[in-house]
Each structure stands twice: as structure tokens, then as C-alpha cells.
Amino acid sequence: YNSNDIFNDIKISRNKFYRAAYLHAYWKRMVACDGTFNYYEQESINIIRERSNGPTSETQLAFNFRHNLDDAELVLKGIKHLDLETGAKQKIIEQAQAALIEGGRAEQFEIRDTESIPESPNQLTNERAAEAWQLGRIISGDEQEGVTDEVKEYLLDVKNKIATEVASISHQLVSNGYIDDARLLDADEAKRIGMVPFETTFFKLVSRYIVQSAGGLEQFLVSPSSVDIKELSKVIHQAMKEYMLVYKHDVPLYDKVFDTFDELSKEKVVPEIYLGRDGVYAFYGRKAQQLASKWEVKDGERVRKQDKETVKIAPKYLVFPRTYMSNLSPEAQHAYLEQEGITKEVDPHFFDTGYKGTIPENILILLGYDKKSLEDHIHLLTSDIAGRELSEMQTTASERGYDLRKRVIDIEYSPKATTTSEGLYRDEKGKIRPIEVASTPRDQLIFQTVKQGIWRHYWLKSLHARAEHDNKSLVVY
Fold this sequence. Notes:
The chain has about 475 residues and is of the alpha/beta class. The protein has helices at about 5-10, 15-30, 40-50, 60-65, 70-80, 85-100, 125-140, 150-175, 180-185, 185-190, 200-215, 215-220, 230-265, 280-290, 320-325, 330-340, 360-365, 395-400, 405-410, 440-470; strands spanning about 270-275, 295-300, 300-305, 315-320, 350, 380, 425, 430-435.
């Protein structure tokens, strides 16, 4: 009777997820005490059988931790063994850590120094980036000298896979009404409006994956089989699948989000705070709009604007997970927010995916807002709290035939460039930065691919809007 059997036997539904994960981590920790199937395993099975019949909500889990700090400590030690999405693990860690701080067994963190931050083994270093650039030249055929036939054959398979996936994406974009976006996949069209062709960028992203997975370019060139071609093909396909899902489901939602902020910014510029990590894709879409608005169209082509017209878009990405609220002192939180220019004086508005808006609510209260004014400053894709869900979200999802709440969950658990931040530190120049660890090469590739889709769509859309405003034509075909 192994851990997976126990985990499956709990029969998880969404509302039982946290309890099941907690019990599984608890069991893992007990087994780790001895490493064999012995008394600890049987005892933990009894605990699971007993507790899996009890209340299952996240609130109840927090209650259990507060009343059993030993459980909380065991979970923090055992959670690393749990094979679950990072977002799910983080919620459990947050509850356990908060309980330990409240119970006096842990202290709130202050801002750390550079030496105390953890290593990030998957971080793309300058050396690996240079190697990925070199591999990209090999893939494109610009640099083939000394490359073995085995490597050439491997990379040809990769190129063919990418070409097939891009062709499929182009067809799907047309089918979903994104005709200009499909045309923009053409290299010449992309270059004409100042974009690097998508396939060129994607080759670079795949090169990063290969170099990181192999442990360096030299290792890959010596033994290309060190990076499983079948696994790479699966990752490429998944990246393209996520790329297309954003167009089908998320872009219509983000359109409504940006319309809301545009309306708010008619009289004055409203600082738009996109909370990470879940708000990262919306942020990049909005950032693309901001930068694209600095250009105009002349004779059907993009040129940089000469005037200094104020751009009424002020997006900002803020890493502020729930652990900051419980693990960081109010002084540390204030220092970080003030550094990022987020104060009551600028009157910030917050975007997040859902559901309650606990993080923006706590930030606003920390800044000195009273509870009556919270709803006007919190904008969520979905929420059960009146006034926090953006208008037309449910209607937009229904018209496109998908469940909004489920899609928001997918966004929250989708691959990101980094894992959830563990705290704050000061770099060598004294700037406060989030402590983040780079995700796996797989997750980085998928994230960067989706980011490309979001960025290119809103860049193109903004150029079209500028052309229409100036009564000029931006031709993309």
C-alpha cells in the first residue's frame, strides 16, 4: 500500500484537495523517519483514514494547523516530497507557516541580504544564454562547421516539429477569427512592423530548453540523446497548445480588463497593479499596449512617434504572494511597496485572477484605505464578493463555451517562469527584490511561448488602434 494508493483513495474533489495534500505530506514525513514500511506507515494510514472523513475546507485546514502545531511543522518538512503543482503546495505552506508564526514557533522574516538567498539551478545564466544563442545559429543553419550528423538529424527533427506546430497554430488562429495574428506568423510581415519572426524567437526558446536540459551546449553536441527528443516534442506541443488556449479563452477576458482600466484612466492615469504570478500574462498584454502606443503608422508601416503625447497606461507587475502577509513584518511590506511606487497617494488599482481578493485587500488596508473603498480598487476575473468581479466576465466565458472558474484555476496553475517567491532580499545596489527560483526548463519554455502570444497579439492590436485613430491603414497580409 504505497503513497500514491493512499493519495488516490482519498478521492479528491476540489474542496477536499487541501486536506488530501496535507495528509499525504504528513504521511511522507512519517515514512521518511525510517524509510521502510513499518509502524510509522501503518500509523499514518490510520491517521488518514480518521481525518479524511472530517471537514475538508482550506479554512478547516488552517484551523487544524493552529490547534496542532506539530502537524504544521511536519507538513513544512514533508511537503517537498509531494508531487503536486507549485500553486497547490504553496497554499499548504502558507497555512502551516502562518499557524507557526501565530503560535510562536516561527518568526516573521525581514528583508534578507544577498548571501542568504537560495540557489536557482534552472536560472538561465549569461553563459547558458550565450550557448543557447550559438545553438540557435546551428539550428538555423548559419553555423554548421564541426557539427556531427547525429546532431544535425536531431535538430532537423526539431525544426520539422516546430514548423508543423506553427502551421497548426496558424490554421487555428484563422478558425478562431484571429486572421491578422495568423498572418503575423509570416516572417516578412513580422519584420515589417518591427517584430522578430515568431519561429526565430521560438527556435531561441527551444535552444534554451536543450542547453539547460543537457547541462550545457558541449554536452548536447557530444551526446544529443541526453535531451530526449520525444519529451522535447511533447513540451513543444504543450507550449503551442497553451499558446492557443490563451487566444481562445483569455484574450477576450483581458480585453474586458483593459477596457475597464481605459475607462478609469479617462480623467487621470490610474496605476494598474498586476499581481504575480497569476496576473503575469495580463500584465504582458497591457505592457505591450503601452509600448505599442508610442508608435504610429505611416504609409502602412510602423515608425516611432515624434510627439510627446502622454500615454494613459500605467501597468506595473508586483510579486506579492500571500506568504508576504504572514511571513513578512509590516515594516518590510511597507518598504517594498513604497520602493515600487505603490502608495495611497498614487491611488493604485489591483488586478488578480480571483477569488476573494485577499492579497489586494490586505495591501490596500496596509496602505491606509478603509474597508468602504476596497471594492473600487480590486478587479478580479472571478469572485464571489460583490463588486470585485469585473463586468461581463461570466458572459464572455459563456459565449465562448467554457467555465470561467475552471479557466481561472487553469491560469493559476499554468507554467510560470519562476516558483512562488519565498521572501524579499536586497541586492548589491540596495534594491529590494523578490526571492524567486527559476522553474524547470519545461515550464520556462511553455511560459515564454504563451508570453509571446500575448505580447504579439496586443502589440498588433494597439498598432491597429493607432492606425484607425489616425485614419491610416495598417495592412497585415
